[in-house]
Amino acid sequence: MDVKKRGNRLGFWFFRTSLKLFGLSGAYGLLYPVCLYYLVFDRPAVSSCMAYIKMRFKTYNFFQRSFAVYKLLINQGKGLIDRYYSFYKPDQFDMELKGYGKVKNLLADSHKGMILLTAHVGNWQISMRGLEGLKKTVYLLMSPEENAAVKNTLNIDNEKGKVKIISPDMFLGGVIEIMKVINEGNIVSIMGDRSYGHNTVEVSFLGNNISLPNSAFIIAAAVKCPVVVLLSARVSRKKYIVDVTNIMEPRYTSRAKKQDEIKAYVQKFARILEDYADRYPFQWFVFRDLWESKVQ
Amino acid sequence: MQKNNGQELAEIKKTLKNLLIKDLSLEDITPDDIRDDDALFGEGLGLDSLDAVEIVVILQRNFGLEVKDLENRKDVFYSIDTLAKYVLENKKNGS
Predict the structure, then answer these.
(1) Do A65 and A54 contact (CB within 8 A), yes or no?
(2) Is B53 close to A219, i.e. CB distance below 8 A?
(3) When comparing pLDDT for A267 and A8, which is higher?
(4) More confident position, B94 or A260
(5) Which residues from B are below 8 Å from A175, CB to CB?
(6) Is residue A115, in this structure, part of any structural domain at all?
(7) What is the per-residue pLDDT across A121-156, written as a single tens digit (0 to 9) for each?
């Protein structure tokens, strides 16, 4: 859901004020009527989530699906509130890092960096903070219009901050810059669950085909660096899990087999996302129909 | 006999065309189909940003060039001509 279009200054003021006066509970409490309003009156918002809900919960009837959308909207709202809250009170959330030691060793054993392949799940902005101990600069591949929403939260491009932006609008989609910073030992974070119509492959996901981007794996194979899948989930009121246990070393054995071998990595990533959607169905904020034109 | 710059540049262009066709799996294209001043990206040869990844690998593997020197060098990636000139001026090992 496009937050910028659906929130206004007054709305944000209400949430900020209730957060200051009543804490997290107060701000969360506001979400229930607001999300109910969206559920009833904001058809574009509802239909954008419905494709995923229909695929994830195939046996649900109309009312169950609508309630699932409601839960998804509320969870996204909680994530936004948590992100805002953590910016002003950084130590308020416990973070369990799964696989952190392995990632740290990977970086220590190589002069090269890595690609963090993530998705619109949990609260990736908060989870980035869990990786600050790696003491590496993290470059987020994202377009300028997306920057504003996360800029403040992550101290992006702030002199003190270790998070910077590479825009896909740069020359050649920023790939030269990406290769350079990885060769210098840094981390590049790429969203793997959203395609922009090119450089994608079709993979099976929740029973039908979808297109997912293959760029992370092609770049990793060229630079010879690992792809670390980063997925976070909110597991209790003030606790997040950040899972970086899934690590791939994309390579292809020959030019002829390149397409198929890269596709196999994308499919593996899709399976990891499927597993995530199975465990945390209401924390994957996929507000678009990934299956559009793909359903037979 | 020492090769002059013109001969060496011509050889680099030929090598680059062959490598692009092979490594980018450009089907139904021969080196003669690629003109020296054809745009590599967009209109022209129609390559995309992920093909640029392969071009960088070609430059590294075959000519010893480094990625960090290619940052912000939009001019280098324009055509075979510009790529070859850059290689000639900066290569660190023989092709």
Answers:
(1) yes
(2) yes
(3) A267
(4) A260
(5) 49-50, 52-53, 56
(6) yes
(7) 998 778 887 888 888 999 999 876 565 555 555 556
Q: Are residues A175 and A259 in the same domain?
A: yes
Residue located via tokens 């590049």? A188
Using pLDDT thresholds of 50, 70 and 90, give the confidence band for residue B27.
confident
**H or E, element range at B51:** helix B49-63
| Topology classification of domain B5-90 | 1.10.1200
Report whether A121 contacts A283 (CB < 8 A). Answer: yes
Whether this model's ipTM surpasses 0.90 comes out as no
Are residues A47 and A19 part of one domain? yes
What residues make up the domain containing A7?
3-88
- How many folded domains does chain A comprise? 2
B41 Rama class: left (phi>0) / alpha (psi -120 to 50) / beta: beta
User: Are A257 and A196 contained in the same domain?
Assistant: yes
Last-in-domain residue among A70, A88, A106: A88
Residue A130 falls inside a structural domain:
yes
Does position B73 have pLDDT exceeding 80, yes or no? yes
Instruction: Using CB atoms, pick whichever of A171, A176, A256 lies closest to residue B56.
Output: A176
